[in-house]
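Posted in: Structural Biology > Protein-Ligand Complexes

Title: Requesting predicted complex, pyridoxal-5'-phosphate in pocket

I'd be grateful if someone could produce the 3D structure tokens for the following input. Sequence and ligand are given below.
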Amino acid sequence: MSNTSKMGSEEMIRLCKEHTMYTWAANDAVSPLPVERAEGIYLYTPDGERILDFNSQLMSVNIGHGHPHVRAAMKAQIDQLLYAYPGTATEPRARLGQKLASLVPGDIDTFFFTLGGAEANENAIRAARLYTGRSKILSRYRSYHGGTNLTMQLTGDPRRWANEPGSPGIVRVMDPWPYTFSWAEDEAEITARHLTYLEEVIQYEGPNTIAAMIIETVTGTNGILRPPAGWLQGLRALLDKYGILLICDEVMAGFGRTGKWFAFEHSEIVPDIVTMAKGLTSSYAPLGAMGVRRKIADHFAKNVFWGGLTYNSHALGLATALAVIEVMENEDLVGNAARLEAVMRQEMAKLAERHPTVRGGRAIGLFGMVDLQKNSKGEPLAPYNGASPAMAALGKRFRELSLFTFVRWGSFMCNPPLCITEDELRGAFAIVDEALLVTHPYFEG
Ligand SMILES: Cc1ncc(COP(=O)(O)O)c(C=O)c1O
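-- Reply #1 --
Done. Output follows.
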């Protein structure tokens, strides 16, 4: 954009609010951050303010902003071919399919491309229903699977409520880590009890009516929760027993975020279907994918897959994903996420020592969250699905200190781009440490 046409922050915000609708919000209540450009771990406002992106935007810009290798690949694709309809064969489609087949573990070797995560999940459910001839889907309460009609019903969190009633056939179950209680003291016991509960639900619903269970392998927005020890292996065996497919939604947890390419690799199981988006292109272009195991691919080699999209296998998205994967491999960003987990945990422990309002934090790779409390009994600083003056003050302070992250209910997110260095990560926590001082007056003892 030339300097003469440069738009200032105020005008940018005013026009965006006047003529465009924001997500999950009443427009008058939003206070959008004006962003002119972004590079590495930083965003820049039109006024030149540099803001540390401590959430990789929507936990999605995994390689960091504006990587030159990806920008060059995108420009080359623009010059070569921008669009060919989904019935064609193109080079980026051929190359990305082949690349993902070698990258995704197990015999998941065939991919259907969409525009984002919700559509990937929609098509995963479609594939599961067509493959099994069954209709019901199990999902969990502490989950988010997308904003479309069907994926809203798969979603357990409160964003679903205003979208009900939606598609029938979804059965939601409790999580191994519920919000207000624990199944047991011991983790192995939690796994055992939860799987027993799940088997009972399967009996009540009728095993032969259930096509699949969808899980976020590591729960994202609803708590950054890894599965308890042995749970995924137990779940895999339980679903196999009844011929129910396992769909792992790796839209947020995939592409290096947890210190592995895919979060299910932490437990050495292979789902029947995996879905991905966000980190697949680092959000540089819209793209999602559903990957299926060979047995399902074989089924759709002989049977029609009743799904399609105008922008299926869009050349620009596919070329972007290929370049993003190259960057991740060349710069060992998955390894960096794994290495920095210890630093993240250490910094979180320091916060808990210094701030009475910090109940604790958790991280798997560079996927982290800190929970805040209003008293030493551990009551959250804002209630489930609620806000509080203390959390609002914290969000405001992050903004004043030029740190971008999500403050949600009584917690805040720690999900920097995977290219962050150890020094930068410690620097980000130093800002968090300063910001947390505003919560002290709200601690009730
Ligand atoms: C786990 C998970 N699944 C699905 C989605 C939906 O993806 P999209 O917004 O690209 O449709 C999201 C988005 O946040 C997500 O976190």
